[in-house]
Amino acid sequence: MRFGVVIFPGTWSDCDFHYVIGEVLRQPVKYIWHRDTDLRELDCMILPGGFSYGDYLRAGAIAGRSPVVEALPDFVARGGFVLGSCNGFQILCEAGMLPGALLRNECLQYRCQSTSLFLENAETPFTRGLRPGQVLKMPISHGEGKYYADPDTLRALKARNQIVFRYCTESGDVTKEANPNGSLENIGGIVNEAGTVLGLMPHPERAAETAMGGTDGLLLFHSLIGSLVEDGSALKR
Amino acid sequence: MRARVFVRLKRGILDPQGTAVKRALEGLGYREVQDLRVGRVLEMELDATQPDQARGRLEEMCRRLLANPVTEEFTVEIVEDGGRPRLA
Amino acid sequence: MRARVFVRLKRGILDPQGTAVKRALEGLGYREVQDLRVGRVLEMELDATQPDQARGRLEEMCRRLLANPVTEEFTVEIVEDGGRPRLA
Amino acid sequence: MTAADPKVTLDLALAHGLTAEEYDRIIQLLGREPTYTELGLFSALWSEHCAYKHSKVFLRLLPTKAPHVLQGPGENAGIVDLGDGWALVLKMESHNHPSFIEPFQGAATGVGGILRDIFTMGARPIATLDSLRFGDPEDPKTRYLIGGVVSGISWYGNCFGVPNVGGEVAFAPEYQGNPLVNVMCVGLVRRDRIFRARAEGVGNPVFYVGAKTGRDGIHGATMASAVFEEGAEERRPTVQVGDPFTEKMLLEACLEAMAGGAVVGIQDMGAAGLACCSSEMPSRAGTGMEVELSRVPRRETGMTPYEIMLSESQERMLLVVAQGREEEVRTIFAKWELDAVEIGRVTGDGLLRVRMDGQLVAEVAVRALTEEAPVYEKPTARPGWLAALHAFDPLSLPEPADYEAALLRLLAAPTIASKQWVYRQYDQQVGINTLVLPGSDAGVLRIKGTSKAIAVTTDSNARHVFLDPYQGAALAVAEAARNLACSGARPLAVTDCLNFGSPERPEILWQFAEAIRGISEACRALEIPVVSGNVSFYNETEGEAILPTPVIGMAGLLEDAGWRTTQWFKSAGDRIALIGPDAVSLGGSEYLAILDRRLAGRPAPLDLRVERDVQAACRAAIEAGLVSSAHDAAEGGLAVALAEACISGPEAVGAEVELPSLGRHDLTLFGEGPSRIVVSVPPRAQRHFESLMGECQVPWRFIGTVGDERLTLKVGGSVLVSLSLDQIAHAWRTGFDRYVG
Ligand SMILES: Nc1ncnc2c1ncn2[C@@H]1O[C@H](COP(=O)(O)OP(=O)(O)O)[C@@H](O)[C@H]1O
Ligand SMILES: [Mg+2]
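Output (structure tokens, whole complex):
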């Protein structure tokens, strides 16, 4: 599976994703500059964490209007996958590719810590092969990760099973205490209707090696790579 | 021409920052503050001469970039050179 | 009584946020923006009846908490109930 | 000279902080009166900050050489060899005064400055650490300062994308009017890709790159001069505001330009901005430089040559570019949306020549500004106050009635309690190298593509330095090295940040001189070179100096990243051993500070040979795989170290310990002494551990066993402390937050 890791001015998880995909997963991967719009050679686009354009104005706002992001709907329509983590999730929401928005953490402070995630939806290409209700451990690192959507949108998200992760305790209870940023209903990650665009605040690339404290982040990639093979490399371009 | 764009959280969306500021003011003895919300204001100098046209452009900027339609609402004010603001 | 407090960076102080937003607007084709600075606006509902007294209290709040005297300056606007703003 | 410039007089020179003798010397060096711009240059470059005029004679004592040192003091940062083609760049800086004036921006720009010092050497920053000191934690002002400083560090580092992996936060009333904000940074560079701040190659173009110049932080002396009275508002220098986004762009652009080979030399425009770069860079290379200021990108109008030369606007660099490679540099910086403007060139005549619109405004020999800056050897005097402080015997105080209560108070003391409130606001992992996060004795980072890791720490116990600057400073070195040893690392190098009061007071200068002697002695004994550092004098308000605070930043190497060790107990059944001597004291201890609000007595003596052997023994045990945890006993003594080992890890675990009596129980539990490490040894390794300790010839003994839900401390068979893990964890976890939350 061929991955593209997008670099916006101010992105900083680009190298980490590149390393995990290339060195840990041994998959083909290349960097994509934010002005590039030719995504033909790629199967999955990664929008990494960071502070694109300093996150000045709103997190992800300026990057959400960049050429590469404007090329994503086409890419997705042709069968491509998109994974946005942290700033990448903020960008996808800002660009309207995922519903809702990410607001400043309720505690008004930045938070870098380990979190547990309750897997709600095990049917997306990113989570296929996992158990619904499985608890994954991945760290967060953000100041604006409080997910918000209006009641109608939330209802629609639930109806279509678009909520993928909720913050939970280590034992899998979705409680207020387990919510690190005040997210609506503990939401930590969602997908688009087709399930091919995943946005999540946690950092799967920081949970991809035992030395880094865990490998749960790899599960998303394994699932994604697996689903592609299962589907018989079904990317249509 | 000078203009101001106000961007604020929609009513109904919690504003923890506003709450924190209000509480801090209370702590200092300013109990008259009943409700407080924090927003952004962008003050600009525009190269434009037609207020109405400028306003149209500003509203477009807001829709395209300056405000997030999911969470925010905006108002645009034009301050004609040296003049008083005209509310939207 | 409604009031607005504007807090903005003093002139001469670098406003990285304003610079980034201006550049982003340029990128979207809005070249008429000559200068852009980003500030905060605090919109409040006050339990007060005397505009001048309220203004005095607001200015005090600004000096004590709402504005950072080293880097920021402020202006206070009182919007009498339903009325138009009165500039400071 | 431009028309608007004021006339240069002795008074104006004095207002710039120069002395009458220094002003005479300037006239002598120039052979004429300086122009206004030249006066600005001299005042900046001959300032304490740039010229180290009061500290230079003492700093010469520091050991700076070792076979693995690739760059010692004198550049923007020091460099040591890591093997496998990699080198580590390290440096620490203070931003104390700016952080007091504006805590958020002051601390943020402090981070920005130290990052530039690292990447100007060609390295990618891989970690920062922050060493902080504040006044009385009960004071609301302190809370405001901590909040601002921590969020400033958090904002800049997180936005830039560098993990914070350690630091310290301590409190003492002496910092009330003068908090300390010291930030350390380490970076990685290929050994053969190191860049230096040298203007080599006559004819090479000089490029200004990065953010635009404003009137930020221009030498405060400008304000003192009467000439600016009318229009003073506009001319007033403004606080420096950081822009971590631009810094990140600057990093990427600089590294890209360096990788391509177009860059000959590079220096960051930090203190004294362009003035500093345009004289220091040619001075190091024995060349000269000429610059045309009208080409400097500015964000304000009407700036004078004086202002442009002295502006301290952030996120800017000066580059010397290989002739013919100009376009390459422009293209790279344009890609990162940054200015890159040719403003001058390297000359061969040893002069700095500054023009504005073609008109000459300064012409000075670069050496006059740099090498020939004054150096003083001012008088030192042992402070009279020490004798009375040393005469105090802590054992003249009554023993505490309740040892459990005393331990809980210590664990909840803000200097000892968990600093999670601080570091959870910092990104700790970006770069995916962090093997040991903040919360253990040192941060540990892997070096990708090798089996190696580095460990980093900052340490200083200023109370000990105050009571005995020589030994206290040596102790800071010993403690830093011990923290590395506990983490499994061998120390490679020191970067220091020496925070003191006014050197013009003989007592303060004595503290400084003694501290340098202590650092030197300890570094020699432990064989650790000092490769970079920073001196921050004049940390006082209204004649009240801070505690002398020489902060030691240290980096060490683990040949095998698998050796990394954390401070917390892991498994029930492990035996607990104490390596190290019994010499402890309550003099200058945390116990005395918290329970008696007193700073007095004599700290326990430091034996550097024992220290070295204890550290070697700890490392040997770690490398042989014989210990599950290692933690040094510092503030709060053995009782606190044991409690931390129980509760600071991901899962709390109890311990039952029988301590050897050292006299009174408060001394046994809370006495502080150097060279002591608590380790836990799995049963399978016990025999091997015993024989290894024998070979190492260090004092050591088993003192207890890991397990259970309580911490039990016994002395001479009687139980002094028996607390549930919840009790001690609660005290330790909430102790800091209650002042800031
Ligand atoms: N300002 C800070 N920034 C980051 N980490 C910190 C800070 N202060 C303390 N820590 C972390 O908390 C832990 C305990 O600190 P401290 O008690 O000073 O340790 P030690 O005495 O072993 O040096 C260390 O891991 C340290 O890195
Ligand atoms: Mg320690």
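Chain A has a mean pLDDT of 94.
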